[in-house]
Amino acid sequence: MNLPRIQHLLDLARKQRLLVIGDVMLDEFVWGKVSRISPEAPVPVVEVQSESSYPGGAANVARNLRPFCDSVHISGLIGCDIHAGRLKALLAEEGIATEGLIESPNFPTIVKTRIIARQQQVVRVDREKRLPTSPETLDAACARIAELLGEVDGVILEDYGKGFLTQDFVTRVGQMTADAGKILTADPNPGNPLTWHNVTTLKPNRSEAFAMAGIPDLGASDDPLKDEALKQVGSTLLARFDIPSLLITLSEHGMILFDRAGPPYHTPTRAREVFDVSGAGDTAIALFTAALCAGATFPEAAEISNHASGVVVSKLGTATLTPEELIASFEKNAA
């Protein structure tokens, strides 16, 4: 892709309106240093130096979209607690519309707390309670989504396997989105096996894709285009879900796109340094969808998504990137 084409797509993406639906959570980071081992147990003592919080899960997908799109909405389930208030405030600070969030007194807001010392994660503490989502809650979510569909150009379903995305709910959202003529992409979770209806693109990682296809993964090939098992997975999932395209992220091997309109397309990794892969999948689905909504072809959207992911893995924590950083990545790799 040449730079004028990339800039043109980014200019068009700015005008796109996106809705992210899925498991939202609050990401907390406790930053400190370790200088001794606890006398109480053989564990490091972390002396806290600072703390920070960010929108996590599906909310991080919305956060990744915001530097590229002027209008971003989020829909998900939160509790009626202090963590929900903090999450909504953080989203509002970043200009993300929160009217799609559903509050439930029976559902505690999901919180993931990471304790980090010397750029190493020492431990992660998860606060969550997995409860079945009531039909009334899902009806309320569908009603709000139906209202928002007239205001958006594309929809992303982000499944972290926390229970919000049920089969009935996903089927209803897929039908509503198709009826509205909008692009719909999904980041699936094999721990929550679903049938994906009316989806433009699915974006699993390699292990997720093999699990979804029910094909054993005997190891990655250095050349994904010569990986016969991977190609079998691609054709299997395209046929099973009757979808136009499938984007599989391959860690150090980049991404591979399976498209009904052409042969598999591989884009190699663009990461120069890797500090933290957490949230890279969120970046990948966010930028791929924004590019599609802006009029990019599937291969162009894959290239943009791959470059964006290469930028965020070079940062520590739940990171995002700017359009300027994305352009710089294309410039570096063209040099």
How many strands?
Answer: 13
Shape descriptor: globular
Which whole number gives the mean pLDDT?
Answer: 93
Q: Which CATH first-tier class would you pick?
A: Alpha Beta
CATH architecture name: 3-Layer(aba) Sandwich
The overall number of domains is 1
Give the SSE string: HEEEHEHEEEHEHEEHHEEEHHH
Find the structural class using helix and strand composition.
Answer: alpha/beta
Radius of gyration, taken over Cα atoms and rounded to an integer in Å: 20 Å
Strand residues, percent: 25-35%
Please count the helical segments: 10
CATH superfamily: Ribokinase
Which features does this protein show?
13 strands, UDP-N-acetylmuramoyl-L-alanine:D-glutamate ligase, 10 helices, 9-stranded mixed beta sheet, 335 residues, 28% strand, 36% helix, 4-stranded mixed beta sheet, single chain, alpha/beta
Q: What does this entry look like structurally?
A:
The protein is of the alpha/beta class and 335 residues long. The chain has a single domain, classed as Ribokinase (UDP-N-acetylmuramoyl-L-alanine:D-glutamate ligase, 3-Layer(aba) Sandwich). Helix content is 36%, strand content 28%. The chain is built from 10 helices and 13 strands. The longest helix is centred in the middle third of the chain and has 15 residues. The mean pLDDT is 93.
